[in-house]
Amino acid sequence: MSLNMYQVFFALAVLLLVYKFFEGKSKSLNRPPIVHISHEALFRYPRQAYETALKEHGPVIGVYRKNRLEYITDESLASEVLTNDALFSAERGTAAILNMPILNMLPHSFIGSLDKLINKSVIPFMETLVPKLAPVFEKHMFELAAQAEASKSDAGVPVELAHHVHDAMAESMLMLIIGEKNPSPEFVRAAIKVAFDVAIVAGIYQNLGYWSRTFPSTWRAFIWIKLMIFTIPWTFRNIAWRVWKDLQVVRKTGKSDHLDPVCLVSRLIQDTGSLRLKDRLWIVCLTLGITFASIHQTSAVIIWVVYELGVRRENLPLLRQELVDILETDPVSGKPTLTYSSLRNAERLDSFIREVLRMKGDTLTIFRLTTKDVPLGGYIIPKNTLITPMATLLHENTDLHGEDAKKFIGDRWMGSGKTSASISTGYWPFGLGRFACPGRQLAIAEIKLMIFALIARADLSMEGNKYTVIDPLNTTAVPPRGQLLLTRLDKHIF
Ligand code: HEM
């Protein structure tokens, strides 16, 4: 019996289908288990929920969150996931988790450009930057302390910390980014609002709202269009216009004397060379990116550190003593001052900050996107999926940090050589690997400037001796809520 062409074709098609079926079967059999965790557990008790699921099904599990499948690993796979950028892309992971996959479609790497800019134009200049930024933080914290001084009462005066922190961060970053020494209130409000709106698009507050939690995909699409296309360009228009005009002057005259030579826009101009339309647009977009990256997270962490100090007041006397010890004298004015080297000598405050960052309960923080089907922990993680290690399993790991790993010890890191900005597998609030946060030294310097300026002139405590974590699934970017109380100090330290 001879087979005709159609029969051969049909037989081949059946064989191919059978092959594909078994291939798919063997692949899906080899996928990590998908664990169902209820909405309630995910958003209210994420740490307990993920840790229990990993204990039962680990070392890597899939969990649906906000309509998206994410793979979560335990501590044994963390280093591989966070540092092997060939298999787990940091750039694409960050873009995906920030709801900005559009960043991956640009002709240049947006995140890579920001990373390069900070590493090249901020970090090497910290010595000169700190004295420029310090007065901004001092002004705002001294204003807060003055409210306590104005009160006759010995009971603490309730103050608006978040408002002052945001203003100080926005003012200092506008100075750094566009070289504006005394930014107008409109510029400051715009920088704060833009940072906040980008945070909304990035889903940073998504866990908190009913609609955004219940209809995550629809919410993402709606908010993306609303904010990215309308609100953010409108809010950012004044700052963008100012940068645009500066670029136009340089392009027309070839001179940049009107710009602060150390501001980031100046540095970008030097690096870019010619300022064609696409270069100018790129610089404006980078200005927006850096505004968000520099203001939002640092403000949140400053609030964390202040509140932790408020409930751990026993640390304050020694921190004040440290401030007295590290203050330097300004050679021109003869006044006591904080320099970058004095901040680096502030080992006790550094240790306290590191302990706050380690212990604030980060759960899912740093995401990577698989660049291909990746074998991991005995399974195959499919290409293009989000994956992250569970942070608490490393930050509070007894093998890495000792038997008392779960205990907050303010001076734990003194003399250890481990600073709040030095990252490792056991400590990665700033990420890990090639794409770890490039702004971390700056962020830590800013936090120290702010804390020292505050405790130099006021005593602090928290109403009810407590604060509330409002988003346990995102402690990194959403600060806790509480009422800070300030009491006047008998003597200013500076
Ligand atoms: C306490 C404050 C801050 C925290 C907790 C923080 C944390 C992080 C984390 C976790 C990442 C992702 C790293 C990774 O994927 O491995 C990151 C990236 C980044 N951060 Fe920060 N950051 C802070 C402040 C800053 C500041 C002040 C700047 C700028 C001056 C900055 C600029 C950036 C940039 C440009 C990126 C993306 C580029 C990259 O991933 O290399 N950050 N940050």
Quick recap of the structure?
The protein has 494 residues and is α+β, with helices and mostly antiparallel strands. It is 55% helix and 9% strand.
- Cα end-to-end separation: 102 Å
Uncertain stretches: none
Question: Beta-sheet strand percentage?
Answer: 5-15%
Q: Could you say which overall geometry the principal axes of the C-alpha atoms support?
A: globular
The main pleated sheet reads as: 5 strands, mixed
Give the radius of gyration. 25 Å
Coarse structural class: alpha+beta
CATH evolutionary superfamily: Cytochrome P450
CATH topology-level name: Cytochrome p450
Spatial order of the strands in the main sheet? 1-2-10-7-3
Helix-residue proportion: 40-55%
Q: How many structural domains in the coordinates?
A: 1
Number of strands: 12
CATH class descriptor name: Mainly Alpha
Which architecture would the CATH scheme give at its second level? Answer: Orthogonal Bundle
- Give the count of helical stretches: 20
Name the hetero compounds present. Answer: protoporphyrin IX containing FE
Mean pLDDT: 92
Cofactor: heme
Transmembrane segments: 6-22, 187-205, 217-236, 281-307
Protein name: Cytochrome P450
Keywords: Heme, Iron, Membrane, Metal-binding, Oxidoreductase, Transmembrane, Transmembrane helix
Secondary structure layout plus pairing:
Elements: H1 5-29, H2 39-44, H3 46-57, E1 60-65, E2 68-73, H4 78-83, E3 88-89, H5 90-97, H6 110-121, H7 126-150, E4 157-159, H8 161-178, H9 185-201, H10 210-214, H11 216-235, H12 237-253, H13 264-272, H14 277-311, H15 316-326, E5 328-329, E6 336-337, H16 340-345, H17 347-359, E7 368-370, E8 374-376, E9 379-381, E10 386-389, H18 392-395, H19 398-401, H20 440-457, E11 458-462, E12 484-488
Parallel strand pairs: 2-10
Antiparallel strand pairs: 1-2, 3-7, 4-12, 5-6, 7-10, 8-9, 11-12
Helix pairs in contact: 7-8, 7-20, 8-9, 8-14, 9-11, 9-14, 12-14, 14-17, 14-20
The chain binds protoporphyrin IX containing FE.
